Automatic annotation (TrEMBL):
Membrane-spanning parts: 27-45, 51-69
Keywords on record: Membrane, Transmembrane, Transmembrane helix
Positions of the UniProt region annotated as Disordered: 1-22
The name this protein goes by in its record: Uncharacterized protein
């Protein structure tokens, strides 16, 4: 018997996609990683302004997020 033997499969029937729920953790981690890489590239390309300008640009976004989560 090999690992590709179809008789050894645990789930022969396809799963219903409506009943399975996926966690968004992987997507969130990917977005954070991409943003960190982009920030690192801006530091590499522009130096010190590339370090602080994304943080300055994120201030209004974070402010709106804080307002949204505080209005429960």
């Amino acid at each position: 018997m090999t690992l590709a033997d179809p008789t050894l499969s645990h789930d022969a029937a396809p799963k219903d996609k409506a009943t399975s729920s996926k966690s968004p953790d992987g997507l969130i981690l990917l977005v954070v990683l991409v943003l960190l890489v982009l920030w690192g590239l801006s530091i590499f390309a522009f130096g010190v302004p590339g370090l602080y300008m994304p943080a300055v640009a994120a201030v209004p976004v974070i402010w709106v997020v804080l307002l949204m989560i505080s209005r429960t």
